[in-house]
Amino acid sequence: MDRSFRLRALDGSERAFPTGRLSLLVFVKEDCPTCNLVLPIVEQLAWTVGAGCDVLVVGQEDEGNRELRRRHGLTVPILDDSALRVSFAWEVETVPTAVLADAEGKELWRTEGFVRSEWQALARLLATTLMVPEPEIRWSALPEHRPGCGSRTVEPGIAERLAAEASGSPLRARRIEIGEQDDPFEFLFDQGLTDGLPVIPPTPERVLRMLRGTSRDPQEVVGLVPPNYAPATVEKVAINAVMAGCRPEYLPIVLAAVEAICTDEFNMHGVLATTHFPGPVIIVNGPIRDRIGMNYRMNALGQGNRANLTIGRAVQLVVRNLGGGRPGEVDRAVLGQPGKLSFCFAEFEERSIWEPLHVERGFPAEESTVTVFAGCAPVPVVDQLARSARALATSYGLALAAVSHPKQYGYGELLLIVPPEHVDTFARDGWTKDQIRERIQEVTARPVRELLPDDECAEGMPPALVERLGLSLDDRLPKFRDPKNIAIVVAGGEAGKFAAYVPGWVSGPTGSQMVTVPIRG
């Protein structure tokens, strides 16, 4: 292993090793009593040898290095090895460790802890070699022997990280060791790392295999995951993708979805903290749908497709395991819904007569994207008899008038999923998405007087709000604040005139907004 290094000293300068001269390296950490014992000796050695030998203290803690300098009044250079790579390369397991090396960096002598006779021998060796007087150290006042402390390189988690770095592995996440007799599946349940269903143990081999699904740096931070705002690196997302059962080619979609839910606009913290029903609904557009075999046809919202289910599940596991979004803690949903396990599907773009969702939202048709929406469980809209676009859009409007509550108006975002047979009905009359939205607004419009709370139903538009908006009781209000809040996508089997809508949560700056991001390789 290469033991050369370049480290920054406390004075801001950089010191390189080998130095071209005899060198004494002393590895220390601040809370080690034996390190504190030897540092005054090291300082005296440095003054004695002068320019003939480079004496370098290699400190394992940034702030600890400063405290050591202050405590002992050190002038000897103290180098910052808080990353511990140099300590690991020199196989330091105990501090203090002192190493004497020649001009080319070859190790000549080593001692660990404090053995008085060995340090005396070192002082004599330096004096003889460099032809300088021996340092005036009161050796008799020092103990004959004092053991050192464990180096930070052998601390749990750090040792594994350093080993992975040294071997060229991209893995840096802390590893959890389990006993030979432990069942890994039950262990993961016991650690609270599952969503209630068994997960795949994320062994290093599986995580490395998952990382092959992306060209992104494993240590790149994708986003800060609410509610704890923990940094989600590509590696940590890959770990949760393994646990969810993803294939490596799904990873770019999972990464994009995590990036999207971590935006301020989506407001994942609010989505979790509300007592309402929502969770991330993930809609995939573009060529990647077919490349990884996503389902956008029959049973698109249901079971049976590995890509759909594991992508959505991986995102939810990231929220749980990295962000801390656990039910009964920050996740305060009074009932929840099955989509909080996984809700992911692709749009059936080829069966649509309209621009797909991502194109409507400003992306090229050939680009693959993920759209996340804070949605609830899907609600069916059944119309098997409409033969005109107007009649079908009227049915949609009648159904949507009851979203959340028939007297709750000024609604925000909603996802409307149109099946192929309904697309054909709209196609015959050449209707656009905007015409469908306009008809929904017309059908749902009700006089303000019908929306006020009364003795029979306490829900409704507060009179104070009516007054503040300058509305009269005869003014008619549509269900949605803005028709553009109705997002329309196509999905489902070729046979069956059954649409669905996915209600949203509070929309706008105080709630959640739909977010679309491109999928990177």
Keywords:
five-stranded mixed β-sheet, alpha+beta, 17 helices, four-stranded mixed β-sheet, 521 residues
Radius of gyration, whole Å: 33 Å
Principal-axes shape call: elongated
The residue-averaged pLDDT reads 95
**How large is the share of residues in beta strands?**
15-25%
Helix/strand/pairing category: alpha+beta
Low-confidence stretches: none
Helix content: 25-40%
Assembly annotation: single chain
What's the β-strand tally?
A: 23
**Total count of helical runs of at least 4 residues:** 17
Q: Give the biggest beta sheet.
A: 5 strands, mixed
**End-to-end CA span:** 33 Å
What does the model show?
The chain has 521 residues and is α+β, with helices and mostly antiparallel strands. It is built from 17 helices and 23 strands. The protein has helices at 33-49, 62-72, 85-89, 116-130, 158-166, 184-190, 204-211, 234-244, 251-261, 268-273, 288-291, 306-321, 357-360, 389-400, 420-428, 433-444, 463-468; strands at 5-8, 14-17, 22-28, 53-59, 78-80, 94-95, 97-101, 107-112, 114-115, 145-146, 149-150, 221-225, 230-233, 279-285, 344-346, 369-375, 379-382, 414-418, 446-447, 476-477, 486-490, 498-503, 515-518. The strands form eight sheets. Strands 5-4-3-7-8 form a five-stranded mixed beta sheet. It has a four-stranded mixed beta sheet with strand order 15-14-16-23. A four-stranded mixed beta sheet has the order 17-22-18-21. Strand 4, helix 2 (62-72) and strand 5 form a beta-alpha-beta unit. The radius of gyration is 33 Å and the shape is elongated. The model has no long low-confidence stretch (mean pLDDT 95).
